[in-house]
Amino acid sequence: PTPTPTPAPTPTPTPTPTPVPTPVPTPVPTPRPTPAPTPAPTPVPTPGPTPVPTPAPTPKPTLTPMPSPTPVPTPAPTPAPTPAPEEPMPEEPMPEEPMPGNGPVPGGQAPTGQLPTGICGFEHNSGGDWPYCDTWSNAEGDDFDWTEGSSTPSRNTGPSKAFEGNKFLYMEASRRRWGENIELKSRPLTIGAFTKLTFAYSMYGWDVNKLEVRVGWDVLWLKVGNQGYQWKTAAVDLSAYAGSTVELSFVAYRGGSYRGDIAIDAVAFQWGAPRNPIMGPPGALGPQAPPGPLAPPRPPDSVAPMSLA
């Protein structure tokens, strides 16, 4: 048999898709910002000045007139009785010979024990064992000697003139070391009742150390440190040594620099009612002080150069 041909399938046409139109977005209008209204500044009221109340005037007190004082009658003065004339007292005859320690020294050299008279001003050096007023001499065994002069050579220390007369004795502190001392010693003196040693001293200077008055090793009077520009005076009671023969000393100590000069002048002995008082009324004693240590040294300048005035 003859095969029957199979008809070819007819292709089904594919429909063409219809394009879908894309909608265009409608622009939304942006609203403009509405400006906020600026508020007008509120004016701040300025406070007016507070009125100060004026105080009412205080009425003045009315013064009551004082009554006039009643005059007091002045009594008539009573005449003083006329004293009867007194008979003059007979004068006592003066002793022909001077009392011990109270008269001139024959031959210019006082015997041992007799107190000197008058005031020793160190006006000259007579030489011998006791060159000053036949009573005083530089001691042996100290560090250096007292100097006789009418002024001291260094500036800002020591006196510029004598307390009495023209000269005095002084410790020259230049070119010395701290703590060194000088001693002016008396010959042996017999002390009577109510005896005092009076003298003038100068302790002017930034580095003044101390000055002592001694009997042996007993310190009877002591002064420490700067005492000012002017001369000072002192009196030392010696009545505790009445009847004893002693040796008195002036001992000065060098301070921390050349500004430590110490001077003495007008040395005298007084007893009873003083004949030549230089310190005031009888019985007035100078200040007493117990022995004390040396004044402390200042920063090192112990060997200071001489400073001429």
UniProtKB/TrEMBL annotation:
One of its GO terms (cellular component) is membrane. Residues 118-269 form the MAM domain. Residues 1-87, 288-302 have a biased composition (Pro residues). SMART domains: MAM (SM00137). It comes from the Eukaryota. InterPro entries: ConA-like_dom_sf, MAM_dom, MAM_domain-containing. Residues 1-110, 280-309 are annotated as: Disordered. This is MAM domain-containing protein. It comes from Alexandrium monilatum.
